[in-house]
Amino acid sequence: MIDLSDLLGQCRVFTAEQSTSDALPAQQPAIYAFFDLFRFSTDNLIDDVVRFKTRHARKHRLTLDEWPEYLRIRLRGDPTPFVGQGKDLCRSLSPPDCEEMARYLLFLSLLNEPLYVGKTEDIKARFVAHHSTGFLFHMKDVHKRSPDEFLFFACYCNAKLLRPMESILLQLINPPLCRQRR
């Protein structure tokens, strides 16, 4: 068994609103990622899950620049409707249980595939830059999605490990919205 729990102390998880920059330390090296945020209302949990799956969980990507080497179709999430025992179990939750479920789902957005992975020697400056020219700006400008629809994860680490770690993560994960590949 390998216990990696001690590494959680080096990580921070926030929603990606602009105000998050106030909570980030300046000059702190980090590997970071953006995820879709599972933010669902406690009153309409099932409807919100279905709406999320319909709008964001299904992705088809065919890019001509990747052809003749290979053709890739990327599917995110389960495209079938939210039905069956899972839906029934959610329907039977009490209002307090729905509130607890919604909070856990916010955090468990980390189990989702990251949309973007990067490295920086100044996590605060890089986060602010994403709002004005980077990933979050692209989401607002092109996809009309608000930064509060994303989860921001930062793992503080040794600066000399940043570039090789980012390269490995990009190779292993292949986040759909990263242009850098190596």
Provide a concise account of the structure shown.
By secondary structure, this protein is of the alpha+beta class. The protein contains 6 helices and 4 strands, in the order ββαααβααβα. It has helices at residues 45-57, 84-91, 95-107, 123-132, 135-141, 162-173; strands at residues 11-15, 30-36, 116-120, 150-156.
Distance between the termini: 31 Å
Helix content: 25-40%
Helix tally equals: 6
Strand content: 5-15%
Q: Quickly count the domains.
A: 2
Main β-sheet, spatial strand arrangement: 1-4-2-3
Mean pLDDT: 85
CATH class of the largest domain: Alpha Beta
Query: How is the main sheet built?
Result: 4 strands, antiparallel
Q: List the helices and strands in order.
A: EEHHHEHHEH
**Would you tell me the structural class of the helices and strands?**
alpha+beta
- The CATH topology of the largest domain is what? GIY-YIG endonuclease
Q: CATH homologous superfamily of the largest domain - what is it? A: GIY-YIG endonuclease
Low-confidence stretches: none
Give the overall shape, derived from the CA principal axes. Answer: globular
Tell me the CATH architecture of the largest domain. 3-Layer(aba) Sandwich
Strand segment tally? 4
